[in-house]
Amino acid sequence: MKTTSTKFQSAFEEDVYKGLISFPKYLHSKYIYDQKGDKLFQQIMDMPEYYLTNCEFNILQRHKDAIAEIIGEERGKLHTNKGFDLIELGAGDGKKTKILLKHLVDKNYDFKYLPIDISQHVLDELAASLNVEIPRLNVKIQQGTYFKTLENIADYSERRKVILVLGSNIGNLMHEDAINFLRNIQQAMSPDDMLIMGFDQKKDPQKILDAYNDPAGITEAFNKNLLVRINRELDANFDVDNFLHWETYDPESGTAKSFLVSKIAQRVHLNKLELEVKFDAWESIHTEISQKYDDKVVEWLAKEAGLSIENSFKDRENYYKNYIFKR
Ligand code: AVI
Questions:
Q1: Which of 124, 164, 269, 302 is the most exposed place for a label (fewest CB within 10 A)?
Q2: pLDDT band at 1 (very low <50, low <70, confident <90, very high)
Q3: 287 in contact with ligand 1, CB cutoff 6 A
């Protein structure tokens, strides 16, 4: 567990400080997501260039029958209680999940939906919309971070568990962190449980670059929201116009990287951290990775985390895959 040193009042302060005094400079993408960042990400998901959302939507639409059969099947004898709990990590607005939920309810599967999200507001809105759209659904919302909630999973889930992580969120982690993430989930699973997770696939590099570099500048605003947030919360004076949003994709490693590049030599003050940061002209801050995968890499990650691939479902163009794992 991470501890915050006494010099800092929060992990945010410490991480920003460490990232900006490093060479090369970096900032963690998780800090993009304040209220404004959440809204910008919603807009990204609606952009035509950001194919990931539609692909996963289509996969769930096309394969809901097969997915329901796999997750609804009673196999192990471990759980005497029939039925299952569908636990979604980072549920958000549940737009994609609702396809599966509607189908499971229509087919009378015995299950409860347990969405977990960091934001209580998001969860309240999700619960209200589900109440109207799928009134027969049994829902219990859980506010918290993935791992805190997973650690206490036994407190609220007594049945077989199907854990759902959509949106290729794992892609924002380097492989080592992705393995730890999967291992944490694996440790919360019993042998009868399943994990369904989305992984964006390697594809035409141009398609990937376009998804992270839209002409409307929404992704740019999303990336620069890191600086806007630092200005507000750490009393800093970043001029966002002095930075360029820059995206790269390495087809060998499958890693898309976002940067903010300083257009000029400049000094920025973060008063709350008593820090002055000096940028040379064209110096970069690395802000995000969005990893793209193939079956070999997903198999390797799964094996390292003690999981095995049970099945996988892809969209028509092979852009994206949802894998079902068991331990
Ligand atoms: C949340 N995550 C999976 C998104 C991605 O594709 O890496 C975040 C994002 N960054 C830029 N556009 C979308």
A1: 124
A2: very low
A3: no
DSSP assigned state of 201: B
The letter for the amino acid at 10 is S
Using CA atoms, how far apart are residues 294 and 196, in angstroms rounded to an integer?
A: 16
What is the per-residue burial (b if ≥16 Cβ within 10 Å, else e) of 283-315? Answer: bbbbbbbbbbbeeebbeebbeebebeeeebbbb
Contact 201, 321 (CB under 8 A): yes
Q: What does the alpha-carbon distance between residue 265 and residue 152 come to, in Å, rounded to a whole number?
A: 49
Cα separation, 318 vs 207, in Å, equals 13
Q: Of 124, 197, 111, 114, nearest to 150 (Cα)? A: 114
Distance 295 CA to ligand 1 centre (A): 20
**48 cis-preceded (ω within 30 degrees of 0):** no
The one-letter amino acid code at 168 reads S
Tell whether ligand 1 has an atom less than 6 A from the beta carbon of residue 220: no
52 near 200, Cβ under 8 Å? yes
Res 31: pLDDT: 95
β-strand partners of 85: 112, 161
Any bridge partners for residue 258, and if so which?
247, 288
Q: For the whole model, what pTM was predicted?
A: 0.94
Q: State if residue 223 touches ligand 1 by the CB under 6 angstroms criterion.
A: no
Please tell me the residue having the least CA distance from ligand 1 atom 7: 290
Ligand 1 pocket check for 247: Cβ under 6 Å: no
The per-residue pLDDT for 78 is 57
Which among 57, 125, 145 has a CA at the least distance from the CA of 322? 57
pLDDT bucket at 179, cuts 50 / 70 / 90:
very high
Q: Is 291 in the pocket of ligand 1 (CB under 6 A)?
A: no
290 in contact with ligand 1, CB cutoff 6 A: yes
Structure tokens at 106: 């229509």
Q: Hey, which residues does 270 pair with through a beta bridge? A: 236, 275
Sheet holding 243-250, edge to edge: 25-26, 284-291, 255-262, 243-250
Rg from Cα positions in the chain: 21
